[in-house]
Amino acid sequence: MKKIFNIVLIVLAVCCVSSCLVGNYMCKYALLPEEHGNDIEGDRTKTESRYPGIIAWYDSLHTAGIFRDTTLIGEGGYKLHAIFSSASAPASAQGTAVVVHGYTDNHICFLNLVRMYRDSLNYNVMVPDLHYHGYSEGRAVQMGWLDRLDVRRFGDMAHEIWGDDFLVVHGVSMGAATTMMLSGDDLPAYYKAFVEDCGYTSVWDQFAHNLKDSFHLPTWPVLNSANSVCRKKYGWDFKEASSVNQLAKCERPMLFIHGDKDDFVPFSHLQKNYDAKTKGYKEMWVAEGTVHAMAYKDHPAEYVARVRAFLEKVKTL
Q1: Quick count: other Cβ atoms within 10 Å of Cβ 193?
Q2: Same domain, 12 and 97
Q3: What would the DSSP string read from start to end of 274-312?
Q4: Which residue from 36, 77, 149, 191 has the fewest beta carbons nearer than 10 Å?
Q5: pTM of the full predicted structure?
Q6: How many angstroms separate the CA atoms of 77 and 22, rounded?
Q7: Are 268 and 62 spatial neighbours (Cβ–Cβ below 8 Å)?
Q8: Is there a single domain that holds both residue 5 and residue 103?
Q9: Do residues 304 and 216 both lie within one domain?
Q10: Range of 257's domain?
Q11: 124 and 53 inside one domain
Q12: Is beta strand 167-172 parallel, antiparallel or unpaired with respect to 96-100?
């Protein structure tokens, strides 16, 4: 019996060590990706290939001083970068939009939405590089949870610049999760609306999907171990980083967008997020035939029309 007991202890110890090693690897893999939106030239090329002419549009406005760079000190004391511009017709600006990019992206990657808000909808725009992305400093990817606090800082900065009483936060993918996580916080009255495009229900759910889909690994003990590493190193938890929990507290209007062919952030997350918001006005749009983060690319006219109609509706509530 003693021999069997010792063997069991050895097996358990090996499993524990293996779990810790795998958990540490998975945490590093997910939160310290080699490419984290810092390949600006590569992202310029990628964005131009999707939306021909958009880089020339941005560069000309940036050179003319219409798009400007700014920084602030974000969560943890790190310097964070953003670009901002007044609306195309400043005297009749309809409000301010904060556009939030996704995982391993930066301010360049969703210039299509920046142009939509500035030129088509006549909004002032603020576009941050999230913690550890683009030109911003940071320790690791925060998957939207602590990023929501930084987006709040940039939203407040935008309000100080333009003084608008109507601010919309619009995010894609991880930026959409950031948007939903922010929506449940106690915010100033000028945060009037939110648009989330293909965001996940929680970091735990998203990583569980990635583990199964990409690595064919079980949630336990791998994700549990990675979560412990994240909590110890970075001070936040995969399960507390929940869009669903924050949406349950959100009383302000939100537009939910998701492609029905999305298999990166599963399409099923859309309904769970939508159902979680039980207070206040909400709309849902399913982008047919669309994979992850491609709703605008596949349906540009409808995308603009739906965002425009949603914001006009919010202003009548």
Answers
A1: 24
A2: no
A3: HHH--SS-EEEEEETT--TT-HHHH-HHHHHHHHHHHHH
A4: 77
A5: 0.94
A6: 30
A7: no
A8: no
A9: no
A10: 40-202+241-314
A11: yes
A12: parallel
* Residue 227 sits in the same domain as residue 103: no
Identify which of 199, 163, 197, 194 has the alpha carbon closest to the alpha carbon of residue 314: 194
Cis, peptide link before residue 221, omega less than 30° from 0? yes
Q: Name the domain boundary from 189, 215, 236.
A: 236
Verify that 169 and 307 share a domain, yes or no: yes
Distance of alpha carbon 79 from the chain centroid: 19
Contacts of 111 (CB under 8 A, 6+ apart): 47, 51, 54, 55, 57, 58
Together in a domain, 228 and 267: no
Q: For the chain, what is the domain count?
A: 2
CA torsion through residues 314, 259, 269, 271, sign: positive
Per-residue pLDDT tens, the chain, 317 aa: give them: 444 443 433 333 334 444 455 788 999 999 999 899 999 999 999 999 999 999 999 999 999 999 999 999 998 899 999 999 999 999 999 999 999 999 999 999 999 999 999 999 999 999 999 999 999 999 999 999 999 999 999 999 999 999 999 999 999 999 999 999 999 999 999 999 999 999 999 999 999 999 998 887 888 888 999 999 999 999 999 999 999 999 999 999 999 999 999 999 999 999 999 999 999 999 999 999 999 999 999 999 999 999 999 999 999 99
